[in-house]
Amino acid sequence: MPADTNPYGGVFGGWLMSQMALAAGSLASRVGRGKAVVVSATDFAFPGAMAVGDELSVYCEVLATGNTSLTIAAESVARERNGEATVKVAGGTFKFVLLDEDDRPRTAVLPGKVST
């Protein structure tokens, strides 16, 4: 929306990052089977421009699993509003820590994994 634009009329990079964090957080909660919070965001690049009204898709993949954390890559692709043309508009990496019911870090017990 127009409120999410930078002074040059393009979509603000901070808005893109927040959408990516939401998507990556959804994957972290699903894979980690519980509460997951962002502790860092790195390696961000904005190779393309997104216009107001474009459709945004965010694709995420778990890159690494730590004792209490998940590292997730996120890629954002914009599709023009009235067509099929797409462009990669952002990419970056998020690290999440899995939390227990007392908001303390908990061991990552993931589907298909056996904890030791």
**DSSP strand (E) fraction?**
35-45%
Please give the count of helices. Answer: 1
Number of domains: 1
Helix residue percentage: 10-25%
Q: Within the largest sheet, what's the order of strands? A: 1-4-3-2
> Biggest sheet, in brief?
4 strands, antiparallel
**CATH fold-level name:** Thiol Ester Dehydrase, Chain A
Uncertain segments: none
* Number of β-strand runs: 4
Classified in CATH, the superfamily is Hotdog Thioesterase
Element-level helix/strand string: HEEEE
Provide the gyration radius in Å.
16 Å
Shape: elongated
CATH class: Alpha Beta
Structural class: alpha+beta
Distance between the termini: 48 Å
How much is the average pLDDT?
A: 91
Domain HotDog ACOT-type: 1-102
Keywords: Hydrolase
Family: Belongs to the acyl coenzyme A hydrolase family.
GO molecular function, one term: long-chain fatty acyl-CoA hydrolase activity
